[in-house]
User: Fold this.
Amino acid sequence: MAAVSFQELRKNFGSTQVLHGISLEIADGEFMVLVGPSGCGKSTLLRMLAGLEDITAGSIAIDDRVVNDLESKDRDIAMVFQSYALYPHMTVRDNMGFSLKLRKDKKTRIDERVARTAKILNLEPYLERYPRELSGGQRQRVAMGRAIVRDPKVFLFDEPLSNLDAKLRVAMRAEIKALHQRLQTTTVYVTHDQVEAMTMADRIAVMNEGRIEQLGAPLELYDRPANLFVAQFIGSPAMNVFEGILRDGAVEALGARWPAPKNKGIQGQPVRYGIRPEHLQPGRDGVPAEVVVVEPMGHETELLVRINDIDLIVVMHGRSAHAPGERIFLAPQAANAHLFDAASGRRI
Amino acid sequence: MIAVPGIALPRSRFAFKSSWQTWGAIMIAPYLLVFLAFVLYPVSYGLWLARDPASYARLFADPIFARTVVNTVVFLLIAVNLKFLLALWLSGFFVHERIWIRWLSIVFLLPWAVPSIPTIFSIRFMFNPEWGVINSVIFRLTAHDGPNWLNDPRIGLGLAMLTHIWKSLPFWTLILIAGRLAIPREQYEAASVDGASAWQKFRYVSWPSLRTLYLTSTILSMIWTLGDFNSVYLLTGGGPADLTHVLATLGIRYIRLDQVDLAMATIVCAMPLVLPLMWFMMKNLSRGDRQ
Amino acid sequence: MRRFTREAGLWLLAIPILLWTLLPIYHIFLFSISSKDSAFSGALWPDKPTLRNFGTIVREEHFYLHHFWVQIWNSLWIAVAAGALTLAIATCAAFAISRLKVRGGRTVMNLALFTYFIPAAFLAIPMYKAMGAYELLNSRWSLVLAMVTLAAPYAIWVLKQASDKLPYELDEAARMDGATPLQLFRLVYLPLMTPSLVAIGTYALLLAWNEYLYAYLLLSHEQTITLAVALGHFISADDSPWELLMATGLVYALPPAAIYYAFRRYMVGGLTAGAVKA
Assistant:
């Protein structure tokens, strides 16, 4: 177990800088998720921690020991790859025991550790099989087993679930989380899927264009996004955001007055007004809107509504009697509104 | 405890990859040695031997030379193109899915799989004007003597071309079969639905996909054909009267006569033919490699 | 009806293909089972088929065959050595270029391709001079090294293409598992490349066994020449024993044909892959 520390970490590929000075402290035993759109630098950051990419500037430390100069194998970390990267010519047993064999552990010790890990992951019946004979979920578990068997200080996961179908992904999500609760090993997990991030993380680092936009616990990011990027990245369907002017405790936008939190911003300031779909509920009065599309999903109903040629999304619990073309009123609450500076995108 | 980044930087880069780069250098070294010792040195040495203009004067004065150049060009243009037209046609035949066609395709590969020397000698004997099997049959059927075959320079060169085609046709047919099999079947089905005839299917489906492969294969085959010594030497020996030589056999002939400067001059004279072909292939393969 | 004509057309095409392919080969076979007198009768099957020619060969009972066993041993030795050496050199080079991403690897690949595109008979002349300078003429090693020079470029090219297809994550996983470059090579790379290695090893072996021109230039002593060169000697005189030549040729041609067909599955896939991509 270990703490991981990134200090002012930079990475250049040729003349383009892909990481602009990342500083991040990951606590011992923490499950840290790096999330962001593709190309944001999250995988590069993980690969630098893994020792697979050079460090252009800055430093990485594991348990206060700078590992910049260490080869991957000497960092005491293990990684689960997106493609699993299982050795096709080795059985599950040999795949899992390979790292132990390379560091010249005794055979009895290798067998014992592989057996223990296989038990944890329910892989015992498959030990003599080859990767090609396994299902996607089983391969995924072997890849994890290969990491666990070494008992490393840190687990690294690089988009480990993106090759699985939707149902299996949900199951594996729970399995990885349960595993972490059992082993309590420091984990750095990279994904582009904000749902994975929200459901698994102790803390999330939202990344964009080589920077960390916000760092915090999942619900903290959801409730108090630090900027427009995080606001729109976290949450599904995404937060409704439109432009307006702050005036007399409300935002004038789309030909209506939208209630805003008190004592924020300056009179006449151009802002972006953000409100999550589930906080935008139809009421008896409020902002008039036209229903364009109704998407019933059983446990909830999504409405696409239009105000002044701008489309907004409304999510209602349960079912809805609304029909396309109908005129409704939306009643937002000031406490649920998010205000962002129009120029900088920062939360007000 | 955190190291100063400025100090960590240069060492980290070096330490990381060094053992991998070192091993890479060690593992690539044997081939590099082979290249230096058996390609670069011989070629440079050979070109140095060919530096004297007098050797070219002597080469051009040799009456065989002009005939050889003509033979080589004829050989390249006719044999290679005929071979590829045949290969294109036969590849269309061999892609039919019949079990007996698969068996036939295995037999068809024999000329490529067996060494040249016995088969070319066999062809040589078949065409022996006095007691070869061909003229024996002709005599028995018509009671006339057959043609002089290998003792006639034109027929001799023609037979050398046929021998060359016989030997290398299977390989190129195989390449074009692979190219045809890479075309998705849906394209043919779509063409059938659109009412295309067999010729139209070839013209608008097969050929556009095969064109690049056909062209690069033809160029590569031309290079190899320039270096084909066996088809001519083992069949006619360059004769009669040294009238069926190509540049490959002429160079070797000079070597056997211990006229190395003439041999090298012959090769240098072939460069206008070889270099454009090599340039084309290098450009093509590096481009394909980068993609 | 249309279906019938198409099938008939296919069969009609099959006959000339079969004749064209087999006639010279059958001619060899016919000669090798004929006695000296009946060989030139022009018949499709000898009156009295005989295996006596093969007996003559095995017992080395003819002037041209006095060193038959030494020469076939030379052929075998050279083919195996050239195959093994090509395989070793090309595999290491492909691994260094494709997996270790060695600096300058691309340049070396281009040098190899350049070599591949020199017509064989043209390279033979300077190679002959160079072997003379290295004092290797008439040594088996001269032919082995020449064959390695000729076979390695294509071998590297095909192996590089094949190894580029292996996912790079495998190497990264092995690195994280603590593998050194050599362990990666031995424990991961070689096992995964086996099919291509079989194809390339066979390719180089057959190339060397079948080679005539280089053998003819580089080896000249009766004790050092390969069987191919010995076969060439038969036609130096007009009154050669052609039935013996053809029988020896058959013995010479059988092993490569057998090896080729045994490994056909590997060969066709492995060797045409690079070509089709180009």
Summary: DSSP finds twelve helices and no strands in chain C. Residues 2-32 of chain C form the longest helix (31 residues). Chain C touches chain B through 95 residues (CB under 8 Å). The CA atoms of residues 166 and 192 of chain C lie 8 Å apart.
